[in-house]
Give the backbone structure.
Amino acid sequence: MDHWDELRMFLAVAKGGTVRAAADALDLNHATVLRGVARLEQRLKTKLFEKLPSGYRLTSAGADIVDLAAQMAEASTKIEGRIFARDQSVSGPLRLTLPVSFATDLLMETLTEFRSAYPDIALEIIGTGTVANLSNREADVALRVVLGKRSPPDNLYGSRLCGFYTAFYGCRDRLGDVSSPLAWLLGPDDVVPGDWVPEGIEMAATAVRFSEMRSRLQAARAGMGITLLPCFVGDEDLLLSRVPGGPVMHTGDVWLLTHVDTRQTLRVRLLCDRIRNVMRAVSARVEGRAAAATSDHL
């Protein structure tokens, strides 16, 4: 493990306050981070952290070097990015980050075809809702929903592919059943709508909250209640139906992002071209227009 990685471990502990937080941020195990910080302290012949019951606090020596270490880590990342950008082979590592539902419901067939066409590319698919730091090479390509009217960071190269729309869904059989109330099924940061009430549907006084979307989707399919879903997820599910009279909301826009230093790398361009083409082909589904077009012809 070279000193560049040790600096990253030092910075991660300084930022996260605990070895566990640093290990999670770097996708390493707890012991590896401890050993890396210990090696850096041994190399510098000084203690960089004080161990407290609540975590790790920088010593005066650690505080003195943390800004310089951040600059060195950033320079290391830029060097790696420049070298990566010069690599025009169709082999080597390639990391794609995207929301889990985009991977499973929209792109897995395309990614399978890409893998078959370029077997020497070591594709890593990172399904997550968190935003990867492309500048730090946490990923090479990111497919992201940028909420509201915001734009991606200036240091990223991106193209807007389509709008991202959501609507309220419930189990088809339960939406017409008034024998018992339905619950609001909420995500971690969701709130019960304040400006819309489902017409003709009794809602329970208490909501049910979920930590992630897939279990919330299954709860809606089972008839537990009503939930907000991406249109491409809810419209494709035969057990679900949009709640009559419910709003269809333009939640944000789908962007395909790469770092300016690596966007011209051949394997990055090949993957981006595939994703761009398929996302434009399914844009009606993502924008909720496919279900509307179907209902117009019924």
